[in-house]
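Supplementary Methods S3. Input chains for the assembly prediction are listed below.
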Amino acid sequence: MSELEEEYRLDYFEEEDFVRKECTECGDFFWTRDEDRRTCGEPPCEDYQFIDNAGFDGEYSLEEMREAFLSFFEDQDHERIDPYPVAANRWRDDVLLTQASIYDFQPLVTSGQTPPPANPLTISQPCIRMQDIDNVGKTGRHTMAFEMMAHHAFNAREDLEDPDQYAYQGEVYWKDETVEYCDKFFESMGADPEEITYIEDPWVGGGNAGPAIEVIYRGAELATLVFMSMEQDPDGEYEMKDGNRYSKMDTYVVDTGYGLERWTWVSQGTPTVYEAVYPEMIAFLKDNAGVEHTEEEAQLVHRSSKLAGHMDIDEAEDMEAARDNIARELDVSTADLEALLEPLEDIYAIADHCRTLAYMLGDGIVPSNVGTGYLARMVLRRTKRLCDNVGVDAPLDELVDMQAERLGYENRDTVRDIVRTEIEKYRETLEQGGRRVERLAKRYAEEGEPIPTEELVELYDSHGIQPDMVEEIAADFGTGVDVPDDFYSLVASRHDSGQPFEEETEDEDRFDDLPATDRHYYEDQFGTDFEAVVLDVFEREGEGAGDGDASEGEPVYDVVLDQTMFYPEGGGQPADRGALTTDDTTVQVEDVQIRDGVILHRTDEPVGKGDIVRGNIDVERRRRLMRHHTATHIVIHAAREVLGEHVRQAGAQKGIDSSRIDVRHYERIDRETRDEIERVANEIVMENTSVQQEWPNRHEAEEEYGFDLYQGGIPAGKNIRLIHVAEDVQACGGTHVRRTGDVGTIKILNTERVQDGVERITFAAGEAAVEATQRTEAALADAAEILDVVPAEVPETAERFFEEWKARGKQIEDLKEQLAEARASGGAAGEEVEVGDATAVVQRLDADMDELRATANALVEEGKIAVIGSGADGAQFVVAVPEGVGVNAGEVVGELARKVGGGGGGPPDFAQGGGPDGAKLDDALEDAPEVLRQVRNA
RNA sequence: GGGCCCAUAGCUCAGUGGUAGAGUGCCUCCUUUGCAAGGAGGAUGCCCUGGGUUCAAAUCCCAGUGGGUCCA
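Predicted structure tokens for the full assembly:
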């Protein structure tokens, strides 16, 4: 079946007397030293062999196993690399979490654009796989958090014409050595070589593919050896199992994965992986939740775990069937077994989830409604529910801290703080949601109906309330709910709006022949004038940027020079403006962009190809941008100092008058905190330390400063540009002032929450800060002048005025009522008419609605029908009728309002209406008695 | 990044274009030895902000602000 069969005929297998066999169960091909072996050894073809029968020469803890692996490969000339964060989006933008060690080196290293930090290397990389979340705790082997131990080698073909096009050259090692290393490592652990099988299992993923080998020992898949060597290619010579065609690449990469938890588990032979990996935490949780077992029960649990381990229950739906089978085999009822196992499953899951949270929060993920923050929130809430469910009453921040401590994080106080804040938020959500459900349940219970599915979806989608919680509360109120099986797909269907399509701006290859422009804005960040040769000019139709001199529709020109000082838009810094001058003409530069190293100066008029031009940059604009750019570094540094180390940039935009940065933080920034950030920022300005740039090797830079360098994105290349501002170091391509003092001053203008967990800080630097302060002061001064007080007294005065204004409103209301009563009892102005047995008062009163209503009410109190008209704003009527009089006020108003070109209505005893035609008001009132009589007779 | 939901008395919330409500808390009085409680009366409000539609907007529409939630 394998088209890649040849790929697996390794010299190493030959030398070591391996034989290739076909599994009698699944038909896969595998390699073994055991002539008599029939199956590939992987469940379900075979059961776990290692439970109660540990596989190595000793028991290893997680830490011991990790060390054993890394030092083994160090002895084999691999360099040990520190693990990367679990938040993979800190160095790549296509994934959220690190799910394998190779993620650390995608896409720049695997494609050969940048060199690996070492070659070959070994690493134990923490990973998180959310897709396993439902299985955690239940199957005995799934964990959401795990470490993937690995050895990697990055190779490039040796027969290339231009080997230097890749960041690494030649072959380090390939398949034979990889299998040999794996074999040797097993040997070093005291495994029996006869029992190891190597299954042929081609690998496909993410546009790449290659032969791969699964390594099975005692029924457990302990390693996967992937030989990434092909890329998707419609004309490729290999067809892989995904149905696509692939061809060989110039680079080929050894990608291995050894599950640390699995190895630890096999070394101990415990029934579940959890007991091998977190024994202390599980003991603590059991004790805390009061889970105790008799000798007999403990035996049952043990045997059940063993059986569960054997079963192929990767899918949650299989769980119930598996549970039934296990119960039958143990000769107990499924219900009894579940009652015994469920608390344990919860405890296992809690331990795993806490480790997941420790990784996520320890690596600086802030809970939020977006991205990795959302995933962290989901895990946290799930963990909290599990704790409540099983009766663990230890605070969650303590549990997470237990794992964080073990994992060696130094920001544990912040992690605990985040957990506490999140738990508090969740508590509020639940409380609010609970009340909402109670109201609903009460309403539906009264109607004797169950809560409909639609409400259930709404509760979950808009309010985060799980259906089981609704079920519980509904039961308390004596009604039910209908939870459909496809509940979550119903929720999903509310979201299936059309995917926003990516706009592919296919850039013509017209720049391909042009050399990369010489950039002089780094070597002299203050240079503003230069000479250059025009290499080419491209005309673009009708793309005049509305903000420049060229109006829309006019043609614009992209001028390419051999060298420039113009800064192209990038890293949140807008492009420079300025002019290009030849002997004949001066053209305005309205925008500057960079494409594959070629800098385009967009101008309103053309210059001649081959001309020599003088360029000069709009100095004022550039200086303001530089101040703001340096200030941005200062502000984020100050924010980290004040808010904590977890603070990270989530976006930034520099400007002329103000700039903004978005930072990840788990709380709102209040005014006091904001003032503190501003104070620290200005302290850095006043220290007036120098601002330095350097171009170190990227891996050395990462080594020294960590991934916090990449606040504003990940640059490509062997060397990266670093900017040092006081103690802050960032990879940055922008232009900066020489010393922090050159920023002048920093004024924070505003903080707002752009998303949950993301705060936007808007600030101004230098002259822009002074201007902003002056604007604020002007507004205050104007307000003070209006109130006729000094500025300091504005708040107090404003409050007093506001209070007085409210009091007067109330007083006016009172007076209107009194006035209305007086009018009604005085019987003065109105014309009284008889309508059947009742008396009606028809009156014109040019006042507002409130007064009309009050007057009408007062007349009704006297037992009279009130018809009041006002010409204060168009024509308005109020008609009120005492109880027991057969006149419908709504109809009367409708009739009257029609006469003034409008409409009206209301209940039969009190109606309002009106129309725009005020001139006809008196006519309408004159007709009122007639209208009253008609309506009465109707 | 996208979708959805919410904003009304100190608090929790009703309110279907037509006179802003309930429960609780608050104030006063009464009953009671005290506590708990009960009875009677009273005050609660820029109905988040700004536009628009309408004779009329707490209510409908748009934008903003603040909060919540689901998904990728």
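Chain A has five domains: 5-216+237-273, 423-492, 510-617, 639-776, 827-937. Residues 412-446 of chain A form the longest helix (35 residues).
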